[in-house]
Design goal:
The chain is mostly beta strands. The chain has one helix and 13 strands; from the N terminus they run H-E-E-E-E-E-E-E-E-E-E-E-E-E.
């Protein structure tokens, strides 16, 4: 009777070891890829969306923009902001499970922001003199804003220098 118990215990122990080995083997498999990666652009932003894998041990998605790490998320969307208009950006994703297994397959998508179609707004122009003689310098001060940003201001073909905020100044010559 005792030998039957030993065999039964031995068999149960072998089965338990086999199931443990199978469970450990599963812990080394990375999760599947994200699917349906899409991007909806604006002038200075892109809304990205995707579907996460159905793996029960899925933890999060690593997100990179143009090769630079941005964040991790378990969500199915991410918004990148402060982008330049009319510029292509590449979002790269890879998945990670709760055991730390990283999927080596990247899912990438390139999307371009829309062009800046809003004109800058000049709120004021100041001149150092309004009655100069021919050849006299005139200091020009311009206050200008834009929904995306002002990258340069010219007065009579002369580039003005950015001072701070929305202020640009420069010198032109009276003709």
């Amino acid at each position: 009777m005792q030998s039957k118990n030993i065999w039964l215990i031995t068999i149960l122990l072998v089965i338990a070891i086999l199931f443990s080995a199978l469970a450990v083997a599963d812990e080394t498999l990375p999760p599947g890829n994200v699917t349906d990666l899409a991007g909806t652009p604006g002038e200075t932003w892109i809304d990205w969306s995707w579907s996460n894998p159905d793996d029960t041990d899925f933890a999060h998605v690593e997100i990179y923009l143009d090769g630079t790490f941005e964040t991790t998320t378990s969500s199915t969307s991410y918004t990148t902001t402060n982008l330049l208009p009319d510029t292509n950006y590449i979002l790269s994703t890879r998945t990670v499970d709760t055991y730390g297994n990283v999927n080596s397959n990247w899912v990438n998508l390139g999307v371009s922001t829309t062009p800046d179609t809003t004109s800058p707004v000049i709120s004021s122009v100041g001149l150092s003199t309004t009655t100069p003689d021919t050849g006299d310098p005139i200091v020009v001060t311009v206050h200008v804003t834009d929904n995306v940003g002002v990258t340069g201001v010219t007065a009579d073909g002369t580039a003005l220098t950015h001072q701070s905020g929305d202020t640009w100044t420069g010198s032109i010559t009276a003709v």
